[in-house]
Amino acid sequence: MTQDKDDDDALAAEFVIGLLDHTERETVKNRITQDAGFERRVHVWAEHLENLNADYAEAVAPRRIKNRVDQTLFGSPRSPRIFWKTLGLIATAAVLAIALGVQLLTPDQSFELQAQLEGSDPPFGVSVAVDRDTDLIEVRVTEGDLPPDGTLELWLLPEDGAPQSLGTFDARTEMTNALAGALQAGATLAVSQEPFGGSPTGLPTGPVLAVGNLEDA
User: Fold this and answer.
1) What is the per-residue pLDDT across 27-50, written as a single tens digit (0 to 9) for each?
2) What is the DSSP string of 91-136?
């Protein structure tokens, strides 16, 4: 079991960095859609590696240099195993975003609402920021650990009516939800632990880890 986990970690890291050929990437992309645990590993590696991109500028390697590198590493100047168009770990987060169809985090995003959700048993914290114009919600875990056997789900708790899901998230996620455009200061949000893929019932099914209210940013 440990060996399987190590192999999955290595595969997820290679996918994020861009070391897989086309056929391997397609196989991994299909697995991501079917294996929530493996999808989580890919997200974790993207979080670990995305900051490395800031240290490198894009540089297209001349063909003669690329061929020499391929020859040294793989014994073939045209090996499909790795496509060296850049030096270092270029655009790691962009590769993941294209593969999974998710948005990259944008630090300069303008948010109108914010909230700090907190729980005490065990201590757990989540920050939420909302851009109503674009229906964008940014969620970051600020305290506590991610559940190893499930996922986190963000909920709107109306004064009247049932909780409404705003989406599932990891340590740092941006997501869009049509409900975001109607959110107002004072609205109550909560985070629950759910099975991989989110609540199977459309309502919270697991423990509520944190609660808080939106306020003007």
Assistant:
1) 988 888 888 888 888 888 877 776
2) THHHHHHHHHT-PPP-TT---SEEEEEEEETTEEEEEEEEETTTTE
